[in-house]
Structures are given as C-alpha cells and as structure tokens.
Amino acid sequence: MTPQGIRQLLKEQPFRPFRLIMSSGKEYVVRHPEMAMLLKNDILVGTDVEDDGMPAEFDICPLLHVSTIETVRTDRPIPNESNEQ
C-alpha cells in the first residue's frame, strides 16, 4: 500500500483499527490513529501498550515490507503486543 493509502486509513472517521502484516509474517495492530506515525518510507507503530493506553515502545515498519493490511474486528479483544511469529 502507498503512504497515501495508509494516511487515508489513519484519517478515516470513524477510525477503524487495522493490522499491518509484514513480509516476515510479523503483525502490528494500529488501534488508534495516534498509535502510528507515517513517514515517507516507514510507519512507526506503538507497541507494548500500557493500561493507560500509551505505548511503551515503537517499531519501525518499512512500507516496502508491508505485505497486507486488514481491518480488525472490534467486537473481540485486540492483543496488547505485536505478534511475534
């Protein structure tokens, strides 16, 4: 997906959480638009979200390695950490 496509996902109202699936199989869930920062060639995704909703860390995800983006259903809990596959 292009940076413009991801920017559109981050700006949608109402926001719909989405999952980035990397070429390595690792997955990152973006639960809120403030949990991601889009750069020209990368997206920074907050990880290890604390009880207060603030991420303790972030991972740099190169857009070149984002293989799939899918909408996350919000009727079931979303894990707090990125999927370590």
Description:
- This protein is mainly β and 85 residues long.
- It has a single domain (3-71), classed as SH3 type barrels (Roll).
- Helix content is 11%, strand content 40%.
- It is built from one helix and six strands.
- The strands form two sheets. Strands 2-1-6 form a three-stranded antiparallel beta sheet, with no helix packed on it.
- Strand 4 (42-49) and strand 5 (55-62) form a beta hairpin.
- The two termini are 22 Å apart.
Describe the global form: globular
Low-confidence stretches: none
The tally of strands reads 6
Largest sheet: 3 strands, antiparallel
Proportion of β residues?
Answer: 35-45%
Q: What is the CATH topology assignment?
A: SH3 type barrels
- Enumerate how many helices there are, as a single number: 1
What level of helicity do the residues show? 10-25%
CATH class: Mainly Beta
The rounded Rg comes to: 12 Å
Helix and strand run: HEEEEEE
Structural class: mainly beta
Task: State the main characteristics.
1 helix, three-stranded antiparallel sheet, 11% helix, SH3 type barrels, 40% strand, globular, 85 residues, mainly beta
The gist of it:
The protein has 85 residues and is mainly beta. It has one helix spanning 3-11, and strands at residues 18-22, 27-30, 36-38, 42-49, 55-62, 66-71. The protein has a three-stranded antiparallel sheet, with no helix packed on it. The chain has a three-stranded antiparallel sheet with strand order 3-4-5, covered by helices on one side.
Topology:
Blueprint: H1 3-11, E1 18-22, E2 27-30, E3 36-38, E4 42-49, E5 55-62, E6 66-71
Antiparallel strand pairs: 1-2, 1-6, 3-4, 4-5
